[in-house]
UniProtKB/TrEMBL annotation:
GO terms for biological process: phospholipid biosynthetic process. Its cofactor is Mg(2+). This is Diacylglycerol kinase. One of its GO terms (cellular component) is plasma membrane. One of its GO terms (molecular function) is ATP binding. PANTHER family: LIPID KINASE YEGS, SPHINGOSINE KINASE. Keywords: ATP-binding, Kinase, Lipid biosynthesis, Lipid metabolism, Nucleotide-binding, Phospholipid biosynthesis, Phospholipid metabolism, Transferase. It comes from Serinibacter arcticus.
């Protein structure tokens, strides 16, 4: 018997996760496990209860029910308080990009929890994670170790800081329709207003320059419910795939960005991929007034702050029941 913490995001999937939570709990108990329900109506309380569970003796696993948001909560809790505890996931969210990349069932919670139960009998997989550290506003590549507030967070999938982040933020504010169609609507709205962002990237000490259109630091393949932003990214290679596109005219972006759904945007000459284990996201020179300030940065679909940021790969840091 294992002692398992269960955290459900009741808002995920427009209520689908809330309905799946009791099913998952019942199935885990039927398999002989001791289940501690950590679910609360709000994120702050859920973080606190999850942290308390992981800090107490006897925690054997943490299972999340929801989408990429509950994954981000669980990953940060585990790596902050109990890095040895493995993470299980039952997909019941909107985007489900973590579950999709892990090859998990995206629709049936009974199948999802059966996968977790079976995985509890085997050694977990080890996955790389990304570490996010806040830098000073005047940070440069040379003084990037500055951490004024000690803020450190982790992400598992993709961190976005270009139009991909702006689309993510707008999609989070849209209540209808449900599912990945929200991202399509958000994309159309952002494309209509696009003028480029004043941001640059330094990857393993190499200045990649202007990344005013697209900026994704990818530890895995997809965002936004299956958009293949970095189709060759791997959780086990110790590197990010840094996908960037310089500032381009809106008409060009209208042709390029829809190709993200199939991953064919990488063949466009404005788009480049650089592999790196440490990345700095920095404000641009600010000399081009028509460019917008960088958008709110998102990781695993969740807002994590604004540039400047330092990102590092932490190889094999997370144990996963998959």
């Amino acid at each position: 018997m294992s002692r398992i913490g269960l955290v459900v995001n009741p808002a995920a999937g427009r209520g689908r996760a809330a309905a799946a939570g009791p099913v998952v709990a019942d199935q885990l108990r039927a398999a002989g496990h001791d289940v501690v329900d950590l679910t609360t109506p709000d994120v702050t309380s859920a973080r606190a209860r999850t942290a308390a569970f992981l800090q107490a003796p006897g925690a054997d696993a943490l299972v999340g029910v929801g989408g990429d948001g509950v994954v981000n909560l669980a990953v940060n809790a585990i790596l902050t308080h109990a890095p040895h505890v493995p993470l299980g996931l039952v997909a019941a969210g909107t985007g489900n990009d973590t579950a999709r990349s892990l090859g998990l069932d995206l629709r049936d919670p009974v199948t999802g929890v059966a996968h977790v139960v079976a995985a509890l009998t085997r050694p977990p997989r080890r996955l790389d994670v990304g570490e996010i550290t806040t830098l000073r506003q005047d940070a440069t590549a040379a003084d990037g170790d500055a951490t004024p507030d000690g803020v450190r967070r982790f992400f598992l999938n993709v961190l976005s800081a270009g139009i991909d982040a702006a689309v993510n933020g707008r999609a989070n504010r849209i209540s209808r329709p449900r599912g990945p169609a929200r991202y399509v609507i958000a994309l159309a709205a952002e494309l209509a207003a696009f003028r480029g962002f004043d941001v640059r990237v330094v990857a393993d000490g190499v200045d990649l320059g202007d990344a005013g259109t697209l900026l994704a630091v990818a530890n895995s393949r997809s965002i936004g419910g299956g958009m293949q932003i970095a189709p060759d990214a791997s959780w086990t290679d110790g590197q990010f795939d840094v996908v960037t596109a310089r500032t381009i005219p809106r008409r060009t972006l209208l042709r390029v960005f829809p190709r993200v759904y199939g991953g064919t945007h990488l063949s466009h000459p404005a788009v480049s991929v650089t592999r790196a284990s440490e990345v700095h996201l920095l404000p641009g020179p600010g000399t081009e007034r028509r460019l917008a300030p960088p958008p709110l940065v998102h990781a695993d679909g969740e807002p994590v702050g604004r540039v400047p940021l330092r990102l590092r790969v932490v190889p094999g840091a997370l144990a996963v029941l998959a």
